Amino acid sequence: MKNYVFDSYSLLAFLEDEPGADLVERVLRDILKGRAKGFLSVINLGEIYYITLREQGREEAEGVMELLASYPLRLIDADWSLTREAAVLKEKYKVAYADCFAAALGRKNKAAVLTGDPEFKQMEKEVEILWLP
Fold this sequence. Notes:
CATH superfamily: 5'-nuclease
CATH architecture: 3-Layer(aba) Sandwich
Strand content: 15-25%
Order of helices and strands: EHHEHHEHHEE
Number of strands: 5
Radius of gyration: 14 Å
Largest sheet: 5 strands, parallel
Strand order of the largest sheet: 3-2-1-4-5
Distance between the termini: 23 Å
Helix content: 40-55%
Structural class: alpha/beta
CATH topology: Rossmann fold
Mean pLDDT: 97
CATH class: Alpha Beta
Number of helices: 6
Number of domains: 1
């Protein structure tokens, strides 16, 4: 069974019907059918909330959180093990801290990180990336 980690880039692309939304939809369907597992860090969920709040307001941000809660994703808290791994990646690469949580979660779960964020190119040797077009 394939494991996937969703970063904020991939879910925002899906929610806003941007390039790559079809790939995210296919992965979500595989998860719904039990052919894959999906993970989302609470840190990346917070980033989605923040971006939506900033760009579209509180009502829309709350609606997005309700919608994402209905998705078949395992929401993973940032415990010390995950936080330490993210910090090690952050020290090694010049990438956003939230991205390091997605990468650390990918490593921990032997999962491909679903993203189109070019910052992840630096970490391709650390974690498998499934690139959005």
